[in-house]
Amino acid sequence: MSALLARLGPLEKRIAAQTTWKYCKRKRQSNWVCAGCTARRDSAFKQQRRSYGDDSLRFTDGGGSVLFPGEGEHEHNDDKKARQNTKPESWTGSSWEFENQGKKELGSQRIQDGPESRTFQEGAFESSYTPLGANERDEGEQDLEQDGLWEPFEPFDGRQEPGTSDSVFAADGFNAPDPRDMLDIDYRAKLSDALLQEEADVVARCLFAAYQANDLDFLRSIPPTTYSEIIRLLEPSHFVAKVGRVHVDFSSKTAAEIGLMSMHKVAREYVSVLQSVLGVRRSVGIAPTFADYTILLRSARDLGNSKMGSFVWHALLNDGHVPNTMCYNYYMSAVVWNGIHSAGSRQTVRVIPYNMEGRAREKRRSKFWNYRVGEGGVRQQTMEIFNKMLTNGVVADEESYRILITASAREGDLATAKSVLKRVWGIDVEGIMAGTDEKSIPPKQIPEHSPMRPTEDLLLTIADAFSINNDIPSALRLVDFVARHFGLAITSDVWARLLQWTFILSLPRTGTDRLGRRTTGQLPLSSVLSLWNLMTGPPYSVKPTMSMYRYLIKNIFHRQSSDWLADKIIAAEPLVRSSREMAGKRLRDVQGYTRARSKGFLRRSQEPRSLERLRNSWQFADLIRRRDILWLRRWVRLYLGTVNRNGARDTRRQHSAYRLPLLLWQWRAILPERIEYETPTGFVMFRIRSEEEIVASHKRRLYLKELRAYLLAAIPKYIGHQWFDRPKSGGIPKRLMEHLKAADEMLNTDARSAKT
């Protein structure tokens, strides 16, 4: 029976196991094994049979992601409590659940103990920013995207939880920088240079150091324009934008796998920094200026935090400021793009009955938390802000109408979106889709420097609005029409959005989805390759990115074409090599600087202009490298899956006899240890690497890990020290530990003999 289960997929195996349990009256014997151990045994047996697990063949994002997603796949606290109350007393959860349950209670108690009377207007600094994850809770990924995602200015306590460590690298023998030591700087001399070089981390350290030293005269002497520049330097577009751009391609599990901190924690740390910076200013009796409020509203938009936007908006009005067009646009965008960086529920933005029903309910499930449809929905809220803007005599611009199109499209109201396109820019959507002669339906002639002149962002808005409404043909034709008549270039972001939704709508539907619930706008599997050929060929000649290759390769996997899949993986390899070379170059720059400084060979002229930029560029380049290698590994496993399914049908034997062995040798560094595949004449099984090569690989990995920890400690950051390098659990397999210990003993013996 176990051999049969090993050959089945996860769904079929569960059905077979349930059938066996139901119809076979099995008696418990003395050698009875629990269900969990049986599942692990079957999983291990299955991996021995196929040499790779089912997880490598699944889409981590549920078959495609949305660049502007919803909230994570998690439940509200009330729902959790209700479900917990229904559990029988005899229920026993895992140790992980009990451990994290206690930590959640500790965290909630910590927030309750905070000063509830603090508001944004007060901006108390006593609850100051605590860097380096001192307050980071070791929660599971499923607790990171709760209903209170990125609450902007809630009470924040600096107390550390029991059992946590301030040091990120303590386990590796390297000590993370002490935050108190990092505030021991000459803030009067360094602040101007840091602003000139746009070093956000040093700027924040200067402010916090001055406040810690109680130098109120220095804080009062900072001009309002300089303080506005400080706030601008700390806004998300400069501070956390790179992390956010990478996060939209990942699920929470994938982000943790490559050592990337969740966007929830990144945004929360950023907001606490911003809160503390404003608190420093208010501590000397100076309120934020209108420019400061504008930057804060833009920050709320970039973070996708409507609650923060509402907080800042009311504070702006209470201080007597009059908002302009830019402020209204930022406020509306914060409402529309609420939850922009959330890692879960990326497909719930699609307009289908299931999602619309979930978003229309009074008590929405957690995956629909980011916006509501219908009464009090995102469209109504946006329209109210827009009408208030016009009532107050503020003139709308192109961005204002783009936001209205997006808000209407989120609720499936394409009639309003089409009306805006026609009334504002003269774009007759119905006429274009009906094939009317373009000379008879020309768009409006808008001056070049008019605020209503369409930009490339309008193309992205059109592509997104019609794509989420399952109408890719209309999106393609409208983007082409607007681009040609207004002289706009179709950017790579627009093509990526179109390719992404074409991939999503072309996925084969299974189970209940085939009954019509999610077949709206269904496209054939060949649509992705057709769009690929269109955008990469003349006249567009788009250079594909790794994200674009990801959608194409997954689509080809569904079509079960081994040759096509191998061709596209080979075509994407230069991008992987480029990212590895860039990361290596940045690593050598940081390594050379730290080596020269430690040996005293570094001259003043050899100092890099900005150490912060040096570290940031290396970390981001290395993050892209890790992402590309992770994707390449997954693609190779998809290729092995097509080979296993189609190997017996390779009658000409050209693929199995020549190309397949060549590709396996070329990709041996990223392949599983054991390889097994089927050919027309039988099965092939072999080990791609020896035990010595595996041990050497793990030793090199340990060395690079220690080197990385050393370099990060040599160029510390007060803010975001762990954003790109989250500590990961796990280690070396037990079967390799003996080899590593033996190798270390040999090295120690050689060293002792050399000394004697």
Element layout with pairings:
Blueprint: H1 2-7, H2 10-23, H3 35-50, H4 77-85, H5 95-112, H6 179-182, H7 187-197, H8 200-212, H9 216-221, H10 224-233, H11 236-239, H12 241-247, H13 252-257, H14 263-282, H15 290-303, H16 306-318, H17 325-336, H18 353-360, H19 378-391, H20 398-410, H21 414-425, H22 429-433, H23 456-468, H24 472-485, H25 492-506, H26 527-536, H27 546-559, H28 562-598, H29 611-646, H30 654-666, E1 674-679, E2 682-687, H31 691-714, H32 734-755
Antiparallel strand pairs: 1-2
Summarize the structure.
With 756 residues, the protein is mostly helical. It has 32 helices and two strands. Among the domains are: 49 residues, no CATH class; 170 residues, no CATH class.
Please give a structural write-up.
Among the domains are: 2-50, no CATH class; 586-755, no CATH class. A two-stranded antiparallel sheet has the order 1-2. 57% of the residues lie in helices and 2% in strands. The relative contact order is 0.09. Residues 13-31, 44-128 and 131-176 have low confidence and may be disordered. A hairpin with a 2-residue loop joins strand 1 and strand 2 (682-687). The radius of gyration is 28 Å and the shape is flat. It is built from 32 helices and two strands. Helix 15 (290-303) packs parallel to helix 17 (325-336) and helix 17 runs antiparallel to helix 19 (378-391). It is mainly α and 756 residues long.
